[in-house]
Amino acid sequence: MLNSSQAPVIDAKGLTKSFGERILFADAELRVEPGQLVALLGPSGAGKSTLLNCLEGLETIDSGTIEIAGQSIAALTEPELAKLRSNQIGTVFQFFHLLPTLTAFENIELSLLLKQVTPHERYERVDGLMKQLGISHRQEAFPSELSGGEMQRVAIARAIVHKPSVIFADEPTGNLDSKSGLEALEILTQLCSNIGAGMLMVTHSETAASYCSRKYSLVDGSLEPAS
Amino acid sequence: MILPGETKLLIHLAQRVVVRRWTQQKLKTLALLLVVALGVSVFLSIGLTNRAAINSFSSFTGVVAGESQYYVRSTIGSLDLADARSVRTALIKTEASLFPTLEMMASVEMAESQENYKLIGVDFLASASHLYRTSQANRELQGSRIENMGVFDYLAQGNSLFAPSSVASRHQWQAGDDILFNLGSEQIEFRYSGEIPLIASDANSELPLLVMDLYALARLADRVGQIDRIDITLPSELRTQSYLEKVSNLLEQANPGNWVIESNAERIKTGSAMTLALRSNLRALSALSLLIAFLLVFQALDSSVSQRREEIASLRSLGVTVRQIRLLWLLEAAVIGALGGVAGIALASLTARFFSGMVNETVNALYYFTADDTLDYAYGEIGLAWVTAIAASILAGWFPARAASLTPPAQLLKKNALLGQARRAIFGKIAVLTGVLGAAAYFLPPLPAPNGHGAPIGGYISALAANACAISIGCFAMESLPLCLAPLARRYKSFLIGLSRFRKPVARHRLALGSVTVAVGMTAAMVVLIGSFEKTVTSWLEQVIHADVYVRSKQSQSAEAKNAISKEIAQAITSETQVEDSATISRFSINIYGLDTFINGYDTDYLIRKPHLSWIGSPPDNLESMKTGESAIISESFQERFNVGIGDSIDISTVLGEKTLRIIGIQSDFGNESGSLGVDQIVLEKWTARDDAQGIALHLKSDVDLEAFVSDLETRYPALEISPNRVLKDQATAIFHQTFAITYALEGVGLFISVIGLGAMLFSLTLERRVEISALLRLGMSRASLASVGITEALALSALGIVLGIMLGLVQGWILIYVVNKQAFGWTLSLSIPWNSLLLLGFATLLAGLFVSWRISWWSSGLPAQQEE
Fold first, then answer.
1. Whether A144 contacts chain B with CB within 8 A
2. Which residue of A has its CA nearest to B498?
3. Based on the domain organization, do B138 and B11 belong to the same domain?
4. Which of A196, B322, B409, B668 has its CA 20 to 30 A from that of A224?
5. Which of B496, B776, B867 sits opposite A106 (nearest CB)?
6. Does residue B272 fall inside a structural domain?
7. Which range in B54-68, B204-218, B443-457, B695-709 is most confidently predicted, on average pLDDT?
C-alpha cells in the first residue's frame, strides 16, 4: 500500500545549522519519497542526530525549509508539531527507549493513544502487529524482561503501528548483535513497504545502508549523496 | 569504621564525587540544606522555648536576691509574719539570709492595650544587708548605688517603685514620675524612682519586672502581714551538701505543716512539671517536622544513588570496596546533617523568638506569668539539635548508602533496570505488624509523671506505629494505583504513562508519599483534636458562663493574677441596686501531697440556687455539706492527677491545720490541667486568712440596661475588667485559640516541608527521565501532555498521601483525645470530626501539590531533547 500523497515525505532545502563557530551542516538538501528507504551515513559527531532532530522539529535550524508529508514545519506551533509527529512520523531509537513502566503492549499502544484511536481498534492493531512480529506472547512483559531483539521489535512496532508517512530510525541496529540486527532491518523495511512509508535511517553500518535505495553522507558540514 | 590508609582515598573520593556534584548542583544542594535547616530550627526553637518556659518560672526570683538555695511558701494562700519569725528562729544559728517576698501582678494602661508586670515586694533592708556582706565587689557596687540613689529615703515615701532600665526607657519614665498602675481592684499611683537597686544580677534586666519595698507594697495592696514566699540564701562558701542538708532539716523540723519547702532544683521542677504536658506535645510535634525533613534527606541521597549508579558501578569495577562506597554516602549524609544543622541553629535565632512568643502567650494564659526575654541559647539544646541533625541524617542516609554499595559493577548494569525497588509484600507485613503494635500500645497504662498526671507513653507509641502503618499501607497500595485508575489510563495517555510509574515505584515515590502522609496526618489529627476541643469547651463555656456580667481584675489574662478584688469592692459591686443575684469566687494555689493545684472557694448557696457547673455523672445532691468544711467537689483533671473519686477523702494543710475533705462531685474544667478542688468560700476564707476574690458573677434585674450598667462600673472601677456574658465567652474562646496558635505554625512547617518533598521527588525523577521525555516528544507528545504526565504522577501520589493522611489523622485524633489528653491533661473531650476542615486541608494540600508539580513538569517538558549516545 502506497502513501496516498505523492509529495515527498521529507523535503528539506538549504538547511544550515551551526553551534557558535562550528557549522554542523550548510545548505543541505534532503528528499525522501513515499516508500523510499534512505540512509544517512557519517562519522560520529558529524551532526547526523542533530539533523534528525531538526527534521523532526525538535531543534531549530538557522536557515532553510523543511516539509514533512507536504507540510512545512516552520510555521507550526508546538502542539501542531506534536500532532504532526504523532500522525506522520514514527521513530526507532538505537537504545529502544521503551517506557520501563509500560508493558510491551502498552508501549506499542501509546502511539495509537496519541492519535486518539478507539480502544477496540487499538487492541486489534497492536495485537495484530505483535502477532506479525512474533512477540504476541510477550504482551504483558515489561521492557526489563525483554531481550534486546524483542525490545527492538516492540520499538519498531511502536514506530509503525499508527501508519506514519515517514520513519526516522536512529542507528536501529546499533545496540543489537548481527543476527538480531538483520532481523530488525528485515522487519523494518518490510513494514515500511507494507504501509508505503518513507524511511530515513541514520547508520554506521554498511549492511544496514545496503537495504536503502538512496544514501546521503554527512561529512564536515556537507550533506552529499553517497554511492 | 575507617581503616588505616583509607582516609586519603575517602577524602579523595569525597572531593571528586560528592563535593563536585554539590558544586555542579548548587541550587539543589542549597535547597536540601535549607529543608534540613528548617526542620532543625523548628526542633531547636521548641527546645529553647520549652527551656525558656521552665526558666521563666523562676527567673523573676533570682533578680533581686540572687539564686537562693531554699524557698518556703504556704501550702495554701500566703504565709504571715509569724511564719517569717518561725523560719528566722529555725535558722538563727546558721548563716542563712532570709528574703520575705510578696509577688503580685500590676498592669499599666497603654494606648490600645495594657502591659502586665510582675510586681515584687522585697525587704530592702534585708537585701541591702545580704548584698553588702556577700563580697567586696558587691559592697562597692551596692554601696555606691545605695548612696547615689538614696534608697532608704524612698522607704519613707511609701510608693517608690523601681524598674529595669529597659522597661523605664520603653515607657520613657524619668525618676520622680508618678505612674498609674492597676493593682488588684484599684488604680494606684506609684513613683518611679529609678533602676532596681540592690540587684544581684543584671542578667535578667530585660524582664517585665517592677520592684518595691515589701512593706510599702503590703500596705498599698492591703496585704499587710502577708508574705508569698521566703527566699533563703546561703553564702557561697557554705553551699556544701552537709550544710544544705542541715538547713533543710532545720526547716523541716520547724514546719508547722502548712509550709512547702523547696530547694532551687525542686522549684524549677515544680515549674517544669506544670508545663510538662504542653511541652511534651510541642516536642512531639516538632520532632515530626524534623522527621519529615529527614525523609527528604533520605530522598535526596537516594536520588544521588540513582543518578550516579553508573559512576558507582565504575568505581566498584576499579576496586573501590562495598564498605568504602557505603562510607562515602554516610559521610555525605553526615555532612548534610552537620551543615544543615548549623544553618538550622542560625535560623533558630529567628524562629525561636517567633515560637517563644506563642508559647509564652499560652504559658501566661494557662500556667504562670512569663516573658519572651527568658529565651537563652543554651549550649545543651543547641548541641542536642546539632547531634540529632547529624544522627538523623546518617540514619536517613543508611538505606541509600546500602543501595549504593550494593550497586553491581558496570558490566552487570542493564538498561531499563529500575533501582530502589522493594518487594511489595514487605510493606504489607510492616503494615500489619505496626498496626498490631499500635493497637496494643493504645491500651498501655501511662507512666508516672512528675506533674501527677501520666506520661502517655502508650499513646505516643500508638501514634508513631499508626504513622508507620499508614506509610506502609501507602507503599503497599501505591502499586495498585494503575489498576484502580485503569479506566482513566486506558483513555488518556498522561494517565497511562503517569500512573504506570507506580507499577515499579522507586524509594523516592515512597518517601514523598510518606512525608505527605505524615504531614497531612499530623495536621488532620490536630484538626480533629482542636475541633473536638472547641466543641467541648464551647459547650462547657455556654454552661458555666451563665451570669449577665463578670468582674475580674485587669491582670486576669495572666494565670498568675489571682484574688485581686478586695472584699470591700466586691461587696460594693454586688450590692448595686441593678443586681438581682450575684456570687464571688476565690481561687488560691494549694499544694497537696507535694503537687501544686488550685482550690476554689464557691458560694455554696449560689451553686444550689443557680446550678451552672458541668458535672461528670450525676450532680451531687448534698452540696449543702460543703458549708461545714467536710466535703468538696473536684475537677476531672484533679481526679486523674490525684487518683481520687466520689466518696474518697483528701487531706489538705491549712492555716488552721490539717483538714480532711470528702469528695462529693466531679466537674468538667478545661481551664488548667493542674485541676481544682472546690470548697465553700466562707470556709476557705478561714483556711487561708484571705478574703479577696478572683471574680464576681452578676445577674441583673430584667429591666437593667446592660451596656449602661457595664459602662458605669468601668468608670467607677477603672482597675477592673467588666465583661458582659458574650464578651467573656469570646475572650475565653480567643485564649483557647491562642493556646493552639503554635500547633498551627508547626503544622504549617510540616506541610510546607512535605510539599517540598513532593517537588523534590518529581524534580529528581524528571532529571533522570530526560531521555524518556525526549523519546516521548519524538513519539508526538506535546509539551502540555508531557507536563500532564508529571502532574498526574504527583497528584496521584498526593491524593493517596492525603487520603491516607486524613485516615491517619482520624486515628491519631482518636489517640490524642482518648489516650494522650486523658492521661496527660486529665480531661475528657467529646470526639467531633470537622469534615469541612479536613476536606479543606486535603484540597489545599492537593492544590499545593498541583502547583509544585505543574511548575516542575512544565519546566522539565521544555528541557532540550536528550539522547543516550
1. yes
2. A101
3. no
4. A196
5. B496
6. yes
7. B695-709
Q: A9 vs chain B: nearest CA distance in angstroms?
A: 17
Give A-chain residues touching B504 at CB under 8 angstroms.
Answer: 100-101, 142
Mark whether B709 and B585 lie in a shared domain: yes
Alpha helices in B66-116 (DSSP H): 81-90
DSSP characters over B287-325: HHHHHHHHHHHHHHHHHHHHHTHHHHHHHHHHT--HHHH
CA distance A181 to B648: 92
A106 interaction partners in chain B (CB closer than 8 Å): 496, 500
B223 and B310 in a single domain? The answer is no
| Local structure of B2: helix, strand or coil | coil
Q: Single out the residue in B718, B741, B775 at which a domain terminates.
A: B718
Q: Does residue B727 sit within a domain?
A: no
A142 neighbourhood in chain B, CB within 8 Å: 503-504
Q: State the residue range of the domain holding B416.
A: 1-63+267-420
pLDDT digits (tens, 9 = 90+) for B240-279: 899 999 999 999 999 988 899 988 888 777 777 777 777 7
Residue B700 lies in a domain: yes
Q: Do A99 and B414 touch (CB under 8 A)?
A: no
The answer on B528 and B506 residing in a single domain is yes
Q: How many contacts, defined by CB atoms under 8 Å, are there between A and B? A: 97
Which of B310, B412, B415 should be substituted to probe chain A, the one whose Cβ sees the most A Cβ atoms within 10 Å? B415
> Are B477 and B366 members of one domain?
no
B380 in A contact zone (CB under 8 Å): no
Amino acid identity, residue B264? N
A79 contacts on B by Cβ (under 8 Å): 782-784
Q: Specify whether B213 is located in the same domain as B85.
A: yes
**With bands split at pLDDT 50, 70 and 90, how would you rate the model's confidence at B409?**
low
Q: Is residue B136 over pLDDT 90?
A: no
Residue A213: exposure state from Cβ atoms within 10 A (0-12, 13-18, ≥19): exposed
Please report how many Cα atoms fall inside a 13 Å half-sphere around the Cα of residue A48, on the Cβ side: 23
**What's the CA gap between A164 and A71, in Å, rounded?**
14
| C-alpha cell recorded at residue A142 | 515489561
pLDDT band at B869 (very low <50, low <70, confident <90, very high): very low
Number of domains in chain B: 4
Q: Do A85 and B497 touch (CB under 8 A)?
A: no
**B435 located within any domain:** yes
Q: Please report the domains of chain A, with CATH numbers, ordered by start residue.
A: 35-57+75-226 (3.40.50.300)
Highest mean pLDDT among A105-109, B60-64, B554-558, B755-759: A105-109
Is B484 buried (19+), middle (13-18) or exposed (0-12) by CB count in 10 A? middle
Share of chain B above pLDDT 90, in %: 28
Please say if the pLDDT value at position B419 is more than 50: no
Residue B30 forms contact with A (CB below 8 Å):
no
The string of pLDDT tens digits covering residues B695-745 is 999 999 999 999 999 999 999 998 898 999 999 899 888 877 877 777 777
Answer yes or no: do A101 and B414 touch at CB < 8 A: no
Cβ distance B493 to A101 less than 8 Å, yes or no, reads no
Contact B197, B154 (CB under 8 A): no
- Enumerate residues 405 to 434 of chain B having a beta carbon within 8 A of any beta carbon in chain A: 414-418
